[in-house]
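Reminder: ligand-aware prediction takes two inputs, not one.
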Amino acid sequence: MFDPGPTHGIHCQGCDQRLPLRMSGPADVATLWECAACGTAFAGVLLPEQATSLAKLVRLAQLHFDAEHALPLPNAFRADVLEQIAKQNDRDFVERRRSPREDIQLDAVAIGLDANFMLVGPTCHGLVVNLSSHGMLLTTHVILPTASVAVQMQTGSEKIQLLGKIVWSRHLGKNCYGTGIDFVARFGKVPAPSAKAPLSAAAAGHSSDK
Ligand SMILES: [Zn+2]
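Here is what comes back for the chain with zinc ion:
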């Protein structure tokens, strides 16, 4: 059988789908992923060259977005953000985008990733205040200092995970920071909690094509 090598991704043990992940090396920070088709869990690293085309085959495990990992928002954050955004809009200061943007308020959790989509932190809660087909403006109470982010947004009962590049970050005022994010890809569908596949740590580490 032809061995495509480790840069071509690992095969899911549950459904044999090739996933845009590789096993983590000693210097890497592993992330816990799940196969979007069957829910099998992998500790590994996203392959940057395959992230755009194959991101829909995987999703980040929910533990990365848990309260234990994410910095909570101050109580007054939402009110502060809306106040700052109103001021910014008055000054027509908010970034122009390639496509029409919609003003919204969506709870989100963002995980800091480096330029190669490796986990570097921090993980923080935030509020998405506008959204277009190409990107979003995410507000947080700490600055997002990384090159890229993975963002999980809550829209109604559905959770959506997106991968994006940070285009700009700036202080908006009063403990509010704004981050302009261009979308790179959307990750696979996140199941509702009742349909959540069991996390199988045993599946990690045995599916490399190496
Ligand atoms: Zn699978």
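The pocket of zinc ion is lined by residues 12, 14-15, 17, 35, 37-38, 40 (CB under 6 Å). The chain has two helices and twelve strands. We will return to this case in the review session.
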